[in-house]
Amino acid sequence: xxxxxxxxxxxxxxxxxxxxxxxxxxxxxxxxxxxxxxxxxxxxxxxxxxxxxxxxxxxxxxxxxxxxxxxxxxxxxxxxxxxxxxxxxxxxxxxxxxxxxxxxxxxxxxxxxxxxxxxxxxxxxxxxxxxxxxxxxxxxxxxxxxxxxxxxxxxxxxxxxxxxxxxxxxxxxxxxxxxxxxxxxxxxxxxxxxxxxxxxxxxxxxxxxxxxxxxxxxxxxxxxxxxxxxxxxxxxxxxxxxxxxxxxxxxxxxxxxxxxxxxxxxxxxxxxxxxxxxxxxxxxxxxxxxxxxxxxxxxxxxxxxxxxxxxxxxxxxxxxxxxxxxxxxxxxxxxxxxxxxxxxx
Amino acid sequence: xxxxxxxxxxxxxxxxxxxxxxxxxxxxxxxxxxxxxxxxxxxxxxxxxxxxxxxxxxxxxxxxxxxxxxxxxxxxxxxxxxxxxxxxxxxxxxxxxxxxxxxxxxxxxxxxxxxxxxxxxxxxxxxxxxxxxxxxxxxxxxxxxxxxxxxxxxxxxxxxxxxxxxxxxxxxxxxxxxxxxxxxxxxxxxxxxxxxxxxxxxxxxxxxxxxxxxxxxxxxxxxxxxxxxxxxxxxxxxxxxxxxxxxxxxxxxxxxxxxxxxxxxxxxxxxxxxxxxxxxxxxxxxxxxxxxxxxxxxxxxxxxxxxxxxxxxxxxxxxxxxxxxxxxxxxxxxxxxxxxxxxxx
Amino acid sequence: xxxxxxxxxxxxxxxxxxxxxxxxxxxxxxxxxxxxxxxxxxxxxxxxxxxxxxxxxxxxxxxxxxxxxxxxxxxxxxxxxxxxxxxxxxxxxxxxxxxxxxxxxxxxxxxxxxxxxxxxxxxxxxxxxxxxxxxxxxxxxxxxxxxxxxxxxxxxxxxxxxxxxxxxxxxxxxxxxxxxxxxxxxxxxxxxxxxxxxxxxxxxxxxxxxxxxxxxxxxxxxxxxxxxxxxxxxxxxxxxxxxxxxxxxxxxxxxxxxxxxxxxxxxxxxxxxxxxxxxxxxxxxxxxxxxxxxxxxxxxxxxxxxxxxxxxxxxxxxxxxxxxxxxxxxxxxxxxxxxxxxxxx
Amino acid sequence: xxxxxxxxxxxxxxxxxxxxxxxxxxxxxxxxxxxxxxxxxxxxxxxxxxxxxxxxxxxxxxxxxxxxxxxxxxxxxxxxxxxxxxxxxxxxxxxxxxxxxxxxxxxxxxxxxxxxxxxxxxxxxxxxxxxxxxxxxxxxxxxxxxxxxxxxxxxxxxxxxxxxxxxxxxxxxxxxxxxxxxxxxxxxxxxxxxxxxxxxxxxxxxxxxxxxxxxxxxxxxxxxxxxxxxxxxxxxxxxxxxxxxxxxxxxxxxxxxxxxxxxxxxxxxxxxxxxxxxxxxxxxxxxxxxxxxxxxxxxxxxxxxxxxxxxxxxxxxxxxxxxxxxxxxxxxxxxxxxxxxxxxx
Lengths: 345, 345, 345, 345
Hints:
homotetramer, about 350 residues, Aspartate Aminotransferase, domain 1, 4-stranded antiparallel β-sheet
């Protein structure tokens, strides 16, 4: 099959995760999370996020985001997010359609919110005509491959809290963020007041496993019910939990994320020296955004999979994953150089 | 771990399914169903359900049911179902909460609807005050382990169609039904006018895989969108599809279901001869319902897992699965006999 | 126009209500309830329901019911109600479709729930698979024209409270009930622990005005927001409030309801002596249910408007309203007698 | 009571509308729209909007907008609108919460969309990850008091239609628009391909009456059902319809709107000559937007009601209504001049 840089979802499963699934495939275990593997996951999560953290495995990232937000929201409330956020741009309207959540969206240049950008929508509290902006969702690392520093996130969360808002962190790529920040998960979640996290494992080498992690015990009682009514409760949950446990064992999550981030750096470094290619966002996690001549893009896409991000500007997105090889990167950089030489003028 | 008869979800994954997951775990594949494994699944499904059938893998049974029903419903419509149906009794309100579907529920003695029972709710067409009963959902085999004959189903579907209704079949245990009927899937779905099927694989030996199968091409265009907005679209879908393909290969689905059904017959046969135990439903698939003295139930539950179905009557439910052994059954029957002898008086 | 007994919604507006609308039609008043007329309504409602009662005018009865229930419910909760309840039978699925509320419905013979009937659905607390039955809605007087005694309601509410449930009373015909019980509103609402009331005025002589009345201050904070998001917030609210104030002034509500109830008694009394007509429900408010030969019904319906309630049995419903005259009743009774004589054999 | 320019909802009911309500208040009429007054309304609407137009009275503007949009949408679709649109900014999230509609919002400078602005969100057709932008809603006159020309609207609608979109026009102030354009309603609705209209009467002198008007017969069958399930179906509908009929009789709608528009022109003309006051939007209907020094605004608000639109810039909104008098305007202009002289430096 043709390889490429289309998505970190195009990669397969890390072999250790397959092994972990097979390893728990014996005997009967209670369904729906009452099993021994999910109990192990709880331990890992408490170790990483703090003693009050609770983990609720779900199927996918959209599910994690919507379950977390719905569990924190009353029926008339709304969510402030970056316009580029996955909940707004890529979830087929699930927040609105499953949970009735209105999104107040803020355009950003780099996918990152700031206290000032939050203020553009965090007003009108108490006015019934305005869907109440009581929730904030932040993505770390962002959809644009950028990263909040711990201090930036702490400021943003503190500002939201001062306004009476609850805070969710979409961590579809939280491992890439932790590696890039060289910080433990809790430094930019539990320790700074984030209430709930969507913990992503699928893009990090799982087959299909994410978890809603509740950090604020005052608002967590809804999650078990919402997970069920939102159709995100797995019957044979042990096999979802086993994937998460495998990644959280012996720092597999970290090794996979570090590798993906390194490949993105290698790719960015490689193309920076090619004249006519412009990297458009800071490369801080596992994504590289760049502008190429459309003819070059078209020609490259015959051999490598990747997406055009913005047809108007010719911007493309290249994602690196846990299984991207240095050969993948070097071959691709060479191909870009060749195409630029041939068609880039 | 303690074994038992609590649920066909307590079993693990059939080894061939694990092998199949591992076998497709190489290289990059497009996400969200554009992969080669899902293409194989389409072939299998067309082979089994007819040339117009389309398969849409989803995560779980609740997801399959709600996606199928929502895809067929307009916003003001309602669903007629048996009161015992999974969509009514066991899905945490997902049909109402995710899709706004009102359920018109009919009490039954054996989980089976009839044209006359359908008529109890299939009226008021055109009256805006009555949520329009335009959908019918049928479960085969039922939640009570019973089975519609092909003729019964055909009559019921024809009656619904004559009223202008669309018909969904909840096939969480469709394989057990096909084996018990000794009929191909299409004999009681495509051939009799069923519009959509929830095809269950998880209870049949998968890790977690179901599919919405569209049989009526006129109403299928909604499924891809609804699957996404209902958060049932897997990114690394090839691994869901691989499970379905594995079960649909070399009749693995049939072998697993036949075994589970046989174990239920063995269990029912065993307890029938124990005085004081009364089997309450016909044993036609992989479930046995029986009434025991509560003291016997309590004592047995210390050694074997199973659920009390109705505390008022003492009715219990025993589910057999693909991995239930003859030894499991025989040990359990002996234990029941012992307990009845000790406490049953 | 042809008069009849089809519905208490077929009547017009009591003249005093029209006068009241005209009387507040001068000058500017703030919209959305910040006006002086709505302030008056608050006073009346506190006087009638207790010092903590809060009134929120809405447009119609379905709106009142759904706003009240949604304001009390968390997203995964469900409502127990009689199968005959308006929320279940006559609201086009609004509770499910607007608020995602699952209804657990209980068949009754007379529209009245009891603690034992409540227990049929009030179980499974804490089980995520079961939409949590945390709300109870009761209709007083019922859809079948019957009445709970104060003691019956108090028992039912106390039982629900002992299960941790919240209680709503659908008072679309609350004035008819208060008159029939010869009790103040609060005797069967505030005083016995009801949390929220839908206070009906439209059938009592208003043009179109109902109110959600919050009795439990702990759960009322949601109503203003839910009323808006459920599209039940009137801009020129003073004219809705004026209708409610008019009915709550000088006991107009009582006079209208007493008259309607008397007309129902007169009608029931009149038909009781006609051989072949059987009154099927106790006549306790403003409705009479009776069984007639279908040919008689058909012939009567050419001259008088009324509905067949159950085509299977020939049961019909006759509603009396504030504007039903003794002549209306006597003419109708005579017509029934004539038709029975002519066709009733 | 203090008068002012806060909202066209602060005005009362035009006397002819009160008279019309009283005039139909006799005898029994069938509920829910089967009455003779609603039949009259149908005639008026067909006369004004074309022979295929159908009118469905509802309670309020939010109700009209959401019923119209939901009736046109499939469950996975989304709506493109101006960021300033009432459906986005002022409806408490009703489109999302009642109908699950995602809104794709476009910032504008003057409340008006263009084909180019529509293109910013009208893409991704067929991509399940993107809530499908299949609906467009346009407000005429806009929330900012501006007006589309007939040609501008025709271009925009034609562009949307070329993309396969359905088009709704929010006509909360459609009468002000028709007068300002000096064009019949149908010139900028039926004749240019608009599918549904929210026809506003409340701000035009009604007590509380709006109508969903279906122009495209292919998509209108949903409206009766959606109106009911969205809780916008009035029982004593004749009194809603009577208001609409009254305004559509003898051009009362036109006289009321013309007057309000003239008052806005008079106000804008008056303040234009006051140094330091800047009118910020074109005054084309019945609204004036202006920037004043905050101290002047604060002082004026002690005597006159009006809202600050944007605290950051000091922009205020002044609405004129059918009952605004020349004295109201002149007194207000004089007061502004005085305050500017006193505090404007």
